[in-house]
Amino acid sequence: MLLLVFVQDLLSRSVYWIVFPVLTILFIVARVVLHQSLSEIGQSVLINCGFLAAQLLLVSAWFSVKQGKWVNIMSQLLGWGDVLFLLCITFYLSVLNFLVFYIVSLMGVLALWLVGQMLISKKNRHIPLAGFQAILFAVFLINSWWLMPIDLMNDDWLLHFIIK
User: Fold this and answer.
1) Of 68, 86, 121, 162, which residue is least crowded by CB atoms under 10 Å?
2) Alpha carbon distance 113, 118 (integer Å)
3) How far is CA 25 from CA 42, 87, 98, in A?
């Protein structure tokens, strides 16, 4: 599913809407299978969504102040697929893991896009954010499952890493 988001976003700058509910269901099922209660899942989802909503409001406010009128970032600057993808992963990641992924993925996407712009002759000012974040999330998942056994649904490993 993550590869599908990447390919669709890269090729057509749009992702079929059905992908997002399917991803969300898969993420919820993964957490339930690993014995997390719905209240645990709901708590982290609410906090993650609150952070995401605050972030979107701040970015809208920034552009609104900059342009002297209200700017809806969803109409020109950010696509619905980008926001829907981020909402999907709020159902999988714990709070600190979501914050880390969000920050690392934004920096990674910017780096990937800048390198891509240097390598291709046809310049494009649009960044396939959801697609690049989907690939980076796949790398996070692969890393957590096989290379470095960490639990992206629990903040304990990250708190232990920070405290050390």
Assistant:
1) 121
2) 9
3) 13, 12, 18
pLDDT per residue over 13-68, tens digit each?
778 889 899 999 999 998 888 777 888 889 999 999 999 999 999 999 998 898 88
Q: What is the Cα–Cα distance from 12 to 82, expressed in whole angstroms? A: 13
Cβ contacts of 139 within 8 Å, gap of 6 or more: none
**If you compute the radius of gyration of the chain from its CA atoms, what whole number of angstroms results?**
17
* Predicted confidence (pLDDT) per residue in 141-158, tens digit: 888 878 777 777 777 777
| Amino acid (one-letter) located at 100 | V
Helix 80-90 to helix 38-67 angle, to the nearest 10 degrees? 150
Q: Determine phi and psi for 147, rounding to 5 degrees.
A: -85, -50
Q: What is the distance between the terminal CA atoms of the chain, rounded to a whole angstrom?
A: 36
